[in-house]
Specification:
8 helices; globular; mainly alpha; single chain; 207 residues
Length: 207
């Protein structure tokens, strides 16, 4: 079977479901931390790690053409996730530096790190771990989206990102112990709009 034919073959539904679950697993771990009071390290160990093991096992037993297509979408999603996450962060920095919105865009980053390491939020190791978790979230979400929406219209990326925005608006203010302000919404909505736009454009090119 030629490579072009292989790439047109659809993925098995179970492979898509498990892959999407793995992509969203770090976010699910964070939701468990916020809503159930688990440490982020514990929720990651019990949610994200098993999901990644499951997708690795399932994809390794798939037919060759399925593996090729799956890995193609994962690679596309990973690249899209890196660029979309960079755009998400950059627009929030720009808005703050321009004085268009005053807020603490990255307040959650050291808290991620503390949840993972048990170190104080000011500790450099905790900060580094927090940034790593932030990046994994952005890339994982993008991979999950690409697995289910490859080739779809680019604006579906924005719809997906606004779903993530809704989750953030619902969970973050209480977790961060701060009010849901106009500044918070301006920064978060702008960031997710850029994230979704970049993701949608790049995922549209995936087979």
């Amino acid at each position: 079977m030629s490579a072009s034919v292989e790439l047109r073959t659809g993925l098995r539904p179970m492979l898509v479901v498990v892959g999407v679950a793995a992509g969203l697993s770090s976010g699910a771990a964070l939701v468990a931390t916020i809503t159930l009071g688990w440490s982020l390290a514990l929720s990651t160990a019990f949610i994200a790690v098993p999901a990644l093991v499951a997708v690795g096992a399932l994809s390794s037993t798939a037919r060759r053409e399925q593996q090729d297509l799956f890995l193609h979408r994962v690679r596309t999603g990973a690249v899209a996730g890196v660029l979309a996450t960079a755009g998400y962060d950059a627009i929030r920095v720009v808005l703050e530096q321009a004085g268009l919105a005053v807020g603490k865009s990255f307040l959650a980053i050291p808290l991620f790190g503390t949840g993972l390491t048990g170190l104080p939020p000011s500790d450099p190791v905790a900060v580094a771990a927090g940034w790593a978790f932030h990046a994994v979230n952005g890339v994982g979400f993008a991979i999950a989206y690409t697995l289910i929406a490859a080739g779809k219209a680019w604006w579906w990326g924005i719809v997906f990102a606004l779903f993530l925005e809704g989750m953030m608006v619902t969970l973050y203010p209480g977790w961060l112990r701060g009010p849901l302000t106009t500044e918070f919404l301006t920064l978060s909505v702008s960031g997710h709009f850029i994230y979704g736009s970049i993701l949608g454009v790049l995922a549209r090119r995936a087979p």
